[in-house]
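Can't paste images in this forum, so I'm doing it all in text. The chain is below; anyone willing to post the predicted structure tokens underneath?
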Amino acid sequence: LVLCGLAGAGLSLYLGYEHNHPGNEICNINEFISCNAVNQSKFSQVGDIPIALFGFGYFVALSWLASRYALHQSLTALFLVQVGSILAVGVDFFLGTQMAQLKVICPFCATTYALNLMLLIGSTLEKRGQSVSLMDALVKDGMMSVVIGLISLIFGVVSTGKSLQGGTKSGSDAFRDLQGSYERVDGSVQTDANDP
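Text version of the structure:
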């Protein structure tokens, strides 16, 4: 379980970095198999934050919970891995439908979906026959896993080169963006007194 979480964290951080610095992704094979096409799509971020970085925070928190279970036999931590995995598989289903709309497959994204499914299956098999109170789980391990996930999200945002205010651009980059924001018209243009 810990290895699945760490692998997911690594892939998510890589995808978050590539979202903010697109270019030479190693999983761009053709127009149908391309991490870049998915990672740069309108579905790839919430606000200014790449979805992959939310995944990074989630996977780091789940890795911590899985290690709590592995080292201390904490059933509350295992229960939270199971609950988190159930929620993540639901989110992955939604993200998979978005990928289907794009008609492109992102191999690294799909791998994180498979890792979530493996976390769900592994935690369910490990926990079978043992009951845990949701309140106990939230009190013992839930709040700390949320804090770890949020700190990881902030680390991911900062380390991938995007500030929480949307990043900064050099003057020349801002000027190039401005140049691309209008259309050049050849000939005369009629305006009225209200036009700037």
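Residues 76 and 137 are 4 Å apart (CA to CA). Residues 163-184 have pLDDT under 50 and may be disordered.
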